Structure formats: C-alpha cells, structure tokens
Please model this.
Amino acid sequence: MNASAATRRSWLPPSMAARLYVIIFAGLMLAQGLSFALLYFERMQSATAVMFNTLEHDVGTSVAVFDRLPAPERPHWLNRLERDNYFYILGAGEPGHTLETPRSKGAVGMIAREVGPDYHVYGNTISMAPERYQVHFTLHDGAPLTLEITPRMKPVASWLPFVFVLQVVLLLLCTWLAVRLATRPLATLAEAADAMKPTADGPRMPQDGPTEVARAARAFNTMQDRIAQHLKERLHILASISHDLQTPITRMRLHVEALDESPEQNKLLDDLREMEHLVREGVTYARSAHGGSETPVRINLGSFLESLAFDYQDVGQPVSLSGNIEGTPTVRAQALRRVLGNLVDNAIKYGGSAEIGAKHDPHGVLCITVSDRGPGIPEQELERVLQPFYRLEASRNRGTGGSGLGLAIAAQLTSSIGGQLQLSRRDGGGLVATVSLP
Model:
C-alpha cells in the first residue's frame, strides 16, 4: 500500500508551488481545450447546416438556369455558378460507386427534392480521401449535367493560432500569480520558523493580508511568545533550584568534612561534589539558550583558536591546532569559546587529546572542528548524544558516563548563535565535532 502510494506521488513535483502550477494550469488547459473542441464542433455543425441549406436552393436555381440556356451559352455560365465546395460539369462526369456517407446521401436527396423528378437525379461516390461525389442531372433537352461536390470546412483563420498562444500565455501568467499569492505566506512562515531561535526572539510575521494568513501569523507570533515565556520560566526554575540547593549542599559538605576520615566520608564527599556539578550543569544548559543575546564582534580566527589551545596547554592538557587557520569572521566570541571549550573537554575526557582546525566550505560557511582519537560514537547514536541527559554509558558514574549535558549544552548554545553542531566518525577512529557558522 505504501509502495503504491509512493508510486502515485512520484509523478508530482516536490514543491507545493510546482504542484499547484501543474494542477491549475492543467485544469485550465483542459477546460480551454474542451471549450475549443465544443466551439469547433458547433462551428462545423452550423457550417454544414448552412452549406446544405445553401446547396439545396442554389443548385435548384443553377440547374434551372442551365436548363433554360441555349446549349452554346452554357459553358460561359460554369465559372459564374461555381462555388467553394462544388462546381458544374457539362457532361456525364466520372464513373463511380454507390454513395457511402449519410452526408452525401442526404445532400443528393435534398437536391432531388428541390429540382423535382423531371431531371432524373442520382449520385455516385468518386473518392473517399478526400470525400468527393457527383450528382447527375438530365436536362429537358437530354443533355447531361454533373455537379461535383467536395465537402470541406473553411480553413482556420490565420490569426487564430496567435490568439490561442496569447490565451496560453495569459493562463500561465494568471496561474503564476495565483500560486505566488497562495504560497508566498507559506514561504514567509517557513523562513520565520527557520530563523526562530531557542530564545524565541526571531523575526515576527506581519499580521496582515488575507484572513487565513493573518490568523496563521497571529498564531505563529503567539507561539513564539509562549516559547519565550516557557524558556524564561524554565531558567527561573533551574536558577531557583540551584540557589536553594547550594546552601544545603554546602552545609552537608561542611558537616561531612568535620567527620573523621573514613571511606564513607570520601564517598559522601564525592556524591556531594557530583550533586554540585549536576546543579551547575543544569543551570548552564538553561542559560545556553540565551547565547544569541551577545553582540557579535570581528575576531582574528587564528589568534582566537590559538588562545583557546594555549589555555589548555598551560594546564598540561594535550590540545593542538591543525592546518593554516586564517580569516576574520564576525562571531559571538564568548558563546563560541564556551562551545569549543565543551567540545575540547569532551575530546580530552574520552579521547585523551583534542585537535582543533578550521576552514571555509564552498558556500562560505565557517567550519571549526574538534577531533579526537577516542573510541568514537556508533553511527546510530550520533544524533541522540546531543540530547540533554542522554549518555552512551548507562551508569551514573561521572568518571565514565558524565552528566549527559556537555554535548547538549554545546549543541543548544551553537543553535542560539545561529550555527549548527554536527558529530561524525573520524577516519582511523575517533570523533569529529564540527561547528558550522554562516
């Protein structure tokens, strides 16, 4: 069932605008073609009726003229009595066979009724491609007279194709305008959604235009306000928890430190330190959504990354730079430093060392990488480890699994400054964390 549905959709263009173009234009062209066919059929029917009516009376008059003219004068009247679809022959005409089409039989019957039985009217078919048949008369002096008929429609006017092309162009323009008016609000909504940040301070949609568009814009702006309020409440709750927990944790640590040294005392102190770490990490994760509030500044990228690496090297951490790092991008320096710091800490913790590099891709996006030679992350887990409190290590031991917030903080902070964090497996083993900043 899914395969058949996919097959039915495969012929449709991928975008909504293109689908509307196809549907509307195809419908209008179908209606236009049907109207043209009906008009042509009606024109043919009317022309046939007029031709038969004219043929009936005109032939009766012409045969009477030939019958009353002296034989020597009859050839002079042939051209005068000739018409577009038929002409006269002074003679017996060509041999043929029985009339085949209802149209030819009807025409011969009408002519016979019009001229009367005195002229011994009969008809025969000469050819069918094109249709050509003859009607034979015997004048009162015994001379044969033949009427040859070639029924055909009048040719289409030379200006009609230009009118048809003009109609198609107008249909295209009207279709384009209708689809543009219908899809432009959707494109604006998609752009506003893409530009929305975790702090919900992205661009607001104008609440004008058609009723449906204005209603969707109001709903989107309201959603942004609700998200911003939710984030403020979350930050306030975490800050309050942190503040309220710091005092009892500190008091508990002082009480534990006052106890006699023992293995139980060390375990309690480790637990208290882990609690303090989790509280600080939780508040840091909440505040990371507001990294976009920092004012962007232009920096020397090489000096910036060297300073970061030297800070780690000064405390004996194996952090190095790779490649020729150049450029002066405009970034939110403090937020970017926190992101890279989290990634370097993660690389040192799990890989033993960190390697920092930077380059610009063909689209002008700044890509800063932090690589390690650790055990890496399975391909199916690369996206999930960016979620808060998700860890590959099932235990709660910070020495192995950590708090599960380091990469989540880096990912959310990167998103808040307009970038993207992506993890990938490194050739030869290890992990590569790439921070992309347009």
User: Anything to note?
Assistant: The longest strand covers residues 131-138.
